[in-house]
Amino acid sequence: MAATPVTPPGPEHLGFPNAPTVAGILDAELSAAMAMARPVIVRYLLLRAAIAHGSRGHNELPTVEAAVRGSISTLVRMLRDRAMPPERVLIHVKELFELLPQHERDVMESVRQKVVLWAIEDYYRAD
Questions:
Q1: How many separate domains does the chain show?
Q2: Rounded distance between C-alpha atoms, residue 119 and residue 112, angstroms
Q3: Whole-structure pTM value
């Protein structure tokens, strides 16, 4: 006979019916990490598009690229620390691109591929 899993009491049992649950707090952290990563990715995308069209911006590229990589790394570590499997992590990373401007398809695909590669590297990096 299998044991029935026991769910620990939540904050509502302590007289706090509207208190956030642990899952709710983790979801809020994930949402915040994703919200912080999007504008950095947009900046990187716009900079790469400008460079592709011959505009200046080459000097900024390493700094902006490092900011994107840092945002992705933070997000991936957060998800990995929650024991999320790599395929689910990649789904979350790819979700970052859903609300971004969908022009400059070649640049968008190049940035998406680079971000996914960084996510995979970060997921398997030994800390």
A1: 1
A2: 10
A3: 0.75
Residues contacting 3, CB < 8 A, separation 6+ = none
Residue 107 lies in a domain: yes
Helix axes 105-124, 22-52, angle to 10 degrees: 130
Residue 11, in any domain of the structure: no
- 109 token code pair: 């695909």
Residues 16-41: b if buried by 16+ CB within 10 A, e if exposed: eeeeeeeeeeeeeebeebbeebbebb
Range of the domain at 59: 23-124
**Closest by alpha carbon to 76, among 89, 85, 88, 66?**
89
With a pLDDT cut of 70, the percent of the chain lying above it is 79
